[in-house]
């Protein structure tokens, strides 16, 4: 007897990958609170390499993190062609963001960043290989 294999549709795969990516982002930010000096910097309004936590910086970072969160739902809700291109572009964009943030980071962050980059590259690959269907005309 062989176990039955479930073939998840591309949209479901993408939503699951975005959700996994978000969990890594959240845990990375949470664990970062334990790095010596982080809370002191936060109490002085500093956001690490981003500098002073101005309303503009906070809004920009909020938007940057809202997009992958929204992609969990949008992967299921958007039309396939729009979802595919959004996942290709955003998957590559968020891979690049993580790659840029690696130098000088803590070891735990490097581990999570490597996982996040693997996830966002997988998002891109799943979107590129989106199955096609034959339409009868």
From TrEMBL:
Keyword Transmembrane recorded: yes
Keyword Transmembrane: yes
Keywords from the named record: Membrane, Transmembrane, Transmembrane helix
Transmembrane annotation, as ranges: 12-36, 56-78, 85-102, 108-128
Protein name: DUF4345 domain-containing protein
């Amino acid at each position: 007897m062989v176990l039955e294999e479930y073939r998840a549709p591309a949209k479901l795969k993408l939503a699951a990958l975005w959700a996994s990516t978000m969990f890594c982002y959240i845990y990375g930010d949470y664990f970062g609170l334990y790095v010596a000096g982080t809370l002191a910097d936060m109490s002085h309004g500093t956001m690490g390499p981003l500098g002073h936590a101005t309303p503009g910086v906070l809004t920009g970072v909020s938007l940057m993190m809202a997009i992958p969160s929204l992609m969990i739902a949008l992967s299921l809700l958007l039309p396939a062609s729009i979802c595919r291109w959004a996942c290709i572009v955003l998957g590559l964009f968020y891979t690049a963001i993580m790659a840029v943030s690696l130098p000088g980071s803590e070891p735990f962050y490097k581990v999570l960043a490597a996982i996040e980059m693997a996830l966002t590259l997988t998002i891109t690959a799943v979107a590129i290989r989106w199955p096609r269907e034959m339409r009868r005309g």
